[in-house]
Design goal:
By secondary structure, this protein is of the alpha+beta class. The protein is about 50% helix and about 15% strand. The protein is built from 5 helices and 5 strands; from the N terminus they run αααββααβββ. It has a 5-stranded mixed sheet. Strand 1 and strand 2 form a beta hairpin. It starts with a helix and ends in a 5-residue tail after the last strand.
């Protein structure tokens, strides 16, 4: 009989423990909800994020990046530092030089896309022209390296002999009459 009594006490203790764990779970859920209510509004979160980003950009590795840096720009800078990417200096007719970062195995098309992204970010930051027709740009201009036109979009930059810090020029196409 004592064994039964002991066995039933065991069952009661387990049942009570089971109830306590359910109660504990409910309390934990309520605490999580209270923490969610104390969460920051979106604008405050953005302010904190931008402050942290500004501190991160002060790092010597990332100091060349603008204050309103994107994740893509940070990743490109890190890839440059590890030798996984290269900077191609693209010279425009007005004398402006655009430092374009592409991976080591980039194609001409990758370079064109990186130029487009660079210009879009620049326009966003400076509030310039709203839209550029890239079909028009590539129909009107060549990219040229060492007097050779980069015409094949699928060809790798390395195949043209382009290395880190080399200059590629925008050159207006001559119209055939």
């Amino acid at each position: 009989m004592d064994e039964l009594k002991g066995g039933s006490l065991k069952n009661v203790d387990e049942a009570e423990l089971g109830e306590k764990s359910v109660v504990d779970e409910i309390k934990e859920e309520q605490e999580e909800e209270e923490e969610d209510e104390e969460a920051l509004p979106h604008s405050e979160f953005l302010d904190i994020f931008e402050e942290g980003l500004a501190l991160m950009v002060q790092d010597p590795l990332l100091c060349d990046l603008p204050i309103q840096v994107t994740l893509e720009e940070v990743n490109s800078q890190v890839a440059l530092e590890y030798g996984q990417a290269m900077t191609v200096r693209v010279c425009k007719a007005d004398g402006e030089v655009m430092p374009i970062v592409v991976v080591q195995s980039a194609t001409v098309l990758d370079l064109k896309k990186a130029i487009r992204r660079y210009m879009e970010l620049k326009q966003q930051r400076e509030g310039g022209v709203k839209h550029i027709s890239w079909k028009y740009v590539w129909r009107t201009f060549h990219l040229v390296f060492n007097a050779e036109k980069l015409e094949d979009d699928k060809r790798k930059l390395k195949d043209y002999g382009i290395r880190n810090r080399d200059e590629v020029t925008f050159l207006k196409k001559l119209r055939m009459k």
